Amino acid sequence: MQVPPNAELTYRLLQSLRYMDATAAYNHCYQMILAYPHLKPSAATNSNQEPTLRYDGTVKITYMGAEYNIPLVIWVPNGFPSRAGPIIYVAQQQDMKIAPNHPVVNSTGLCRSQWEGIRNLSETVHYLVREFSKKPPLHSHAPRPAGGYQAPGASTVPVPGINPYAQQQQMQPQQQQQSAPYPYQQVQQQSIQRSPPPKEVDPVEEVAAHLRQKLKSDLDTQCKDLHNTTKETTEANSQRLSELSVKLSESEQQLASLNTDITRLNSEKEMLTNIVKENEEWLKKHSAEEPVDQMPEDHLSCQALELASEDMALDDMLRILHEMLSKKCISGDDFVKTVRQIGSRQFTCRATHNKVKQKMSERERAREQEALQQQQAQGSSQPIPVAS
After folding, report:
1. Taking a C-beta distance cutoff of 8 angstroms, is the pair 293, 284 a contact?
2. Residue 37 to residues 4, 14, 56, 138, 352: CA-CA distances in angstroms?
3. Which of 39, 89, 167, 368 could covalently link to 55 via disulfide, CB atoms 3.0 to 4.6 Å apart?
4. Distance between CA atoms of 360 and 294, rounded to whole angstroms?
5. C-alpha distances in angstroms, 130 versus 28, 32, 172, 223, 341?
6. Residue 155: what pLDDT?
């Protein structure tokens, strides 16, 4: 059996448009093309701007003993037949309009095809043909000069036994330019055939289509995973950057505080250097005027001298601390803490010094008593002179 041209074109369009279930969609379309060969396939863009398979043409109905051609537009969505059904419209013409209150056609021409109950494209069109044969979906709304068209005010249903589309095809060229109702020829009577697709699907092409679909699915999954991973990494980096910014701000504050402390310490260092210089100059000036006493040789005297020197040094430190506090070179807390330490050390030093002085006094008294006893011993051993 020869394959209809519309069937081959349908197969190529389904492959080029990459339908999800091209084989099942082709089987449905093939059965419809055999029954209605005047439906021509094409690729068109739907309302969602998606390339979709579309059929334009006419189907034959019989109303009151006369045959009429009803123009249809059939959209076959990409999910057909498992995920979506066909969308069928009655094409309105220039001088024909949709019949009001039609049982299967609304005012925009959309057909209620009962696809959910039928689930077969050819049988769906059969159902619409039967309903259109009961009540045609189109009627004329303008007077016609030729027979078969009603005068104004007459009934708007088609006249039985007359096919207005077939009559217009026989009009003169100048009459055909007045906008024919539909540019399709009258459908010839033919029996409806049921047969399998004209040729088997190429297994290589089928495997290639399956691989393309699987590759697309894998790429979509990888892209989503990569997007999620990138998003998580970006969020983590943003959070880490925020934490580093906070730490940087804290470090800058600490650095500013350290710079302040360095400036204060440099000022204190300069002040102490000046004090040392003044003391050195004073020592040089008074070293020639006041001879240095000889260092004591006994242990108590050396200890007393050291304690006295330490006490004087602590007094000098207290004086320097008061000067630094008055010049705001040292904080109040540091001043109190340092004075407490110096005071504790000075108290210990003075207490020890008093004990050493007491020991030295006792030693001096012991020496005096010893010297006195020696003198007394020497005086008693001398002879008493005899008076002459």
Report:
1. no
2. 8, 18, 11, 21, 130
3. 39
4. 18
5. 19, 15, 33, 50, 115
6. 35
Here the tokens at position 214 are 């699987």
Q: What digits encode the pLDDT tens for the residues 56-84? A: 999 999 999 999 999 999 999 999 999 89
Q: What is the pLDDT of residue 281?
A: 85
Q: Encoding tokens for residue 279?
A: 């003391």
Residue 100's identity, in one-letter code, is P
Bridging pattern class, strands 138-140 and 96-98? antiparallel
Phi, psi of 90 (to 5 degrees): -90, 125
Cα–Cα nearest to 43, from 3, 12, 8? 12
Can you list the residues of the chain whose pLDDT is less than 70? Answer: 1-2, 141-204, 206-207, 287-297, 380-388
Of 136, 158, 139, give the one whose Cα is nearest residue 147.
158
pTM: 0.40
Report the candidate in 252, 243, 248, 355 with the shortest Cα–Cα distance to residue 303. Answer: 355
The encoded tokens of residue 86 equal 């066909």
Question: Residue 164 has what pLDDT?
Answer: 41
Beta bridge partners of 69: 60
**Structure-token pair, residue 375:** 């003198």
C-alpha 53/C-alpha 77 separation (Å) is 7
**So what's the pLDDT on residue 214?**
81
β-bridge mates for residue 51, sequence order: 45
Q: What is the 3-state secondary structure (H, E, C) of 230-288?
A: HHHHHHHHHHHHHHHHHHHHHHHHHHHHHHHHHHHHHHHHHHHHHHHHHHHHHHHHHHC
Looking at residue 209, its amino acid is A
In whole angstroms, give the CA distance from residue 184 to residue 69: 8
Residues 6+ apart with CB under 8 A from 62: 68, 133
Q: What is the torsional sign of CA 342, 347, 352, 358?
A: positive
User: The sheet that has 66-76: what strands, in order across it?
Assistant: 40-45, 51-63, 66-76, 87-90
Are the CB atoms for 58 and 182 separated by under 8 Å?
A: yes
CB 70 within 8 A of CB 57: no
Q: Give the angle subtended at the CA of 198 by the CAs of 193 and 201, to the nearest 5°.
A: 140
Question: Could you give the CA distance from residue 52 to residue 31 in angstroms, rounded to a whole number?
Answer: 19
